[in-house]
TrEMBL record, chain A:
Provenance organism: Qipengyuania polymorpha
PANTHER family attached to this UniProt entry: CYTOCHROME C BIOGENESIS B-RELATED, HEME EXPORTER PROTEIN B
InterPro entries registered for this protein in UniProt: Cyt_c_biogenesis_CcmB, Cyt_c_CcmB_bac
Pfam families: CcmB (PF03379)
Function: Required for the export of heme to the periplasm for the biogenesis of c-type cytochromes.
Protein name: Heme exporter protein B
TrEMBL record, chain B:
NCBIfam families, sorted: ccmA
Domain of life: Bacteria
Entries under Pfam families matching the protein: ABC_tran (PF00005)
Keywords of the record: ATP-binding, Cytochrome c-type biogenesis, Membrane, Nucleotide-binding, Translocase, Transport
GO molecular function: ATP binding
Protein's UniProt name: Heme ABC exporter ATP-binding protein CcmA
Domain ABC transporter: 5-190
Originating organism: Qipengyuania polymorpha
Amino acid sequence: MSAALALLRRDLSLLMPGGSGGGVLPLLFFLAVAMLYPFAVGPDAQLLARTGGGVIWVAALLAAILPLEKLVTGDLEAGVFDQLSLRDVSEELAMAVRLFAHWLAFAPLLLVATLPAAALLGLDENTTRTVLLGLLAGTPGLAAVGLAVAALTASMRGGAALAGLMVIPLAVPILIFGAGALSRPDTSGILFTAAISLGLCALAPFAAAAAIRAAQEN
Amino acid sequence: MQAQLTAKDIACRRGERLLFKGLSLDCAPGDALQITGANGVGKSSLLRILAGLLRPFAGEVSSTGAIGLVDERLALDANQPLGKALAFWERLDGCSDPGRALDVLQLEPLLDVPVRYLSTGQKKRAALARLLNRNCPIWLLDEPLNGLDTQAQKSVEALVALHCGGGGIAVVASHQPFAVPGGKALAIEDYAA
């Protein structure tokens, strides 16, 4: 337990915006997309309100890719995982903690930034609420996919670009149900998104740990 | 519990190349062993196999007691000040007296310096501080003298002697002469495949 706390403290200090490795870049990227979209399609309020929710979802997905580069590579190169295995701290634990820290570092801020983005796109109250709930349900899944892919590509040259490409197809189910909830009167889409997220969060630490062990053998 | 480190008939393959085979060693408490050999003969790989980080191509390794490894990879966050980077490992290892290692290795003046600004020798000393703080019976040191000045080299040799005097085991891979207590040495070239 104390190992998990020590890991969480370190991960947060590295990943949080303002921390030594983190940044607000994903957030600015997210807001920039919401800002550019009305410029690109024109000031048709009805069109913006109808498509805005989907745009926020796409922007959130792409913003979730940005922090992946720093998620695992640095620690693998610095031998942190070697030292952790010597201390019998499993890669699974390290990755589960990192998943939580990674989510904390980008998702809450993203949810806050959704409010100005929704205002920029002229979304009504109902749509904004559905988008927020959907993102709350979907971002853990995005974080999980991101972590597993970051670990898989950590030992490759140019892994970061590849990670971005690999995340997109894996994140499609979250996008379909999360953004799909916007066109349904009930909450089934959001619940589906949450279910996918939970499944991914349960799998990701094991997948990421296996990837790290494979990379250590090299 | 008595520390013990045994390797039986191990072989190491990297890619398509068999680096060494039939290598056996047996370390009892108080033993120090220097691994010698030119670059690329497999000193670091041997240490990683002994640490359990690399599977040997053949043979087996068994150990009793916690293993500490110092190699060229620092495992300290480059952007954080040294004090903060070391503090993570101190918390993880439950170290109660980190001051002693800092004192022995003369790292106190560097605690506020981000790790990436440290010189090679200072980084090596920081990694050794992480090892000392952990208080583990088996030390695996990979080129511990690299980048260290003469005085620091002497104090590392003294640390190893002290560690072995207290019943610890030290395996030192170094291409430089390293005064290990007892003077046992193992040349990997003897086992070259």
